[in-house]
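Chapter review. Work through the record for Thiosulfate sulfurtransferase before attempting the end-of-chapter questions.
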Amino acid sequence: MDESVVVSPDWLAANRDRPDIRPVDVRDAWEFDAIGHVPGAASIPFDSYRDDSDADRGTLPGADAFASLLSAAGIGPGDTLVAYDDTHGVFAARLYLTALEYGHDDVRLLNGDYSAWSREYETTTAATEFEATNYEPHPLDREESPLVGREAVEAARERDALLVDTRERDEFAEAHLPGAVRFDWREAVDDETRRLLSEGDLEGLLESHGITRDQDIVLYCNTARRISHTYVVLRALGYEDVAVYEGSLTEWIAMDGEIETGAS
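Structure tokens for Thiosulfate sulfurtransferase:
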């Protein structure tokens, strides 16, 4: 699996003394303080990089707001961010996608989560102080960005792109985009180890759902959190033609988009 996208706890342990390696903990602040965290990690809670004015859809916070978070955490544009949570990586994947969208060159997901790290490596509750930076974001332009809007999804349907719904079966049965296939993001994670399945197992799993690397893929869920995890998985496997419908089903239904019902 591509280590420029996903890294193991072993990799982080071997590299975390490098000044450019910056673990980023996206759990709630109380978890960071009371339960513990990876030594040297910065706390950037998940709710802080969601748009407060658009809470229902959970859209991105805006480039300047995100840059302020990174500045306060002492992060510079040349740093390697390693995002983690304690929820199998789904919230950390959202930080991955957010940082990517705002032009951070090197951001990675910790394979596993805080629990996976703490089984093998040191944790701490000690506070870490960072010297603030003046982080300047460089948002991707439309051609570079993996994020797409409703019009692009309509165009994707016209060209028979593969729409992938990353939600649970009951949600899919209640409403989904016409023609979508369902791939629950949690299927990619081993519950016991809390890490992603092996590369071979992931490839086989995706193929069993009809998802292959030669396809034009558009991901959606409800509020763009779960698709972030699947996006990272596909990117780590080398899938190239993958788009993320940022508004997801919440926006689609609000704009009277056509839906289907029934289980996959």
